[in-house]
Amino acid sequence: MGKLDGYIVDLKSMTSDTVSYRWHTDNDFFSAVQGPEIQRGSLDVAIRVKRTSGTYELAFQLQGEVEVTCDRCLEPMSQPIDAQCTLRVTLGDDYADDGDVVTVPEREGTINVAWNIYEFTALQIPLRHVHPDGKCPAWSSSLSPDSAGAEASLRESSGEAASDPRWDALKKLVNSKSSTVK
Ligand SMILES: [Zn+2]
């Protein structure tokens, strides 16, 4: 739990009606959270907490990328994340979460948003997530011999880069090539 203590938002002792937080989450964050869908990633997270008559509105901004498994080839792939989500929090007697509003005990007056960050991120992953056409290792087997060769050399040079301009240019080349061959 200690690793995620940095994600505690102190609501009770807010000195102004708006407070901002900023974090950078990385692989350590995802391994500490131990969520089922995401084990690795890199995200910039910003939260703006707004207090209005007993309710706290936490506006999350998530930007970066996480690693998920491609449905087609089962290899890791990068999933870009760019999202804005809102969480409403009130103070009460006991902890409660009814889906729309989270209640945290007033005697504590704090909420740890690590799991919320994880959940909001996981919600951004599309139901079906596959490498874009031409970038999936399982895809090359269905291409013509010519372009399969190009694909293989591309794969070697692409490394981990999610979006490589060289790749895109070559992909276009491969695509136009295979369409003219037909
Ligand atoms: Zn794939």
Q: What number is the mean pLDDT? A: 84
Query: For the CA atoms, what is the radius of gyration?
Result: 22 Å
The number of distinct β-strands equals: 8
Q: What is the makeup of the main sheet?
A: 6 strands, mixed
List unreliable stretches of 5+ residues.
144-151, 156-161, 178-182
Features of the shown structure:
182 residues; alpha+beta; 6-stranded mixed β-sheet; two-stranded antiparallel sheet
Would you give an account of this structure?
With 182 residues, the protein is an alpha+beta fold. It contains four helices and eight strands, in the order ββαββββββααα. It has helices at 27-33, 114-123, 145-158, 165-181; strands spanning 8-10, 18-25, 40-52, 55-69, 76-92, 96-97, 101-105, 110-112. The strands form two sheets. Strands 2-3-4-5-7-6 form a six-stranded mixed beta sheet. The chain has a two-stranded antiparallel ribbon with strand order 1-8. α3 packs antiparallel against α4 (165-181). The relative contact order is 0.15. Residues 70, 72-73, 75, 77, 130-131, 136-138 line the site of zinc ion.
Protein topology:
Blueprint: E1 8-10, E2 18-25, H1 27-33, E3 40-52, E4 55-69, E5 76-92, E6 96-97, E7 101-105, E8 110-112, H2 114-123, H3 145-158, H4 165-181
Parallel strand pairs: 5-7
Antiparallel strand pairs: 1-8, 2-3, 3-4, 4-5, 6-7
Helix pairs in contact: 3-4
Bound molecules: zinc ion.
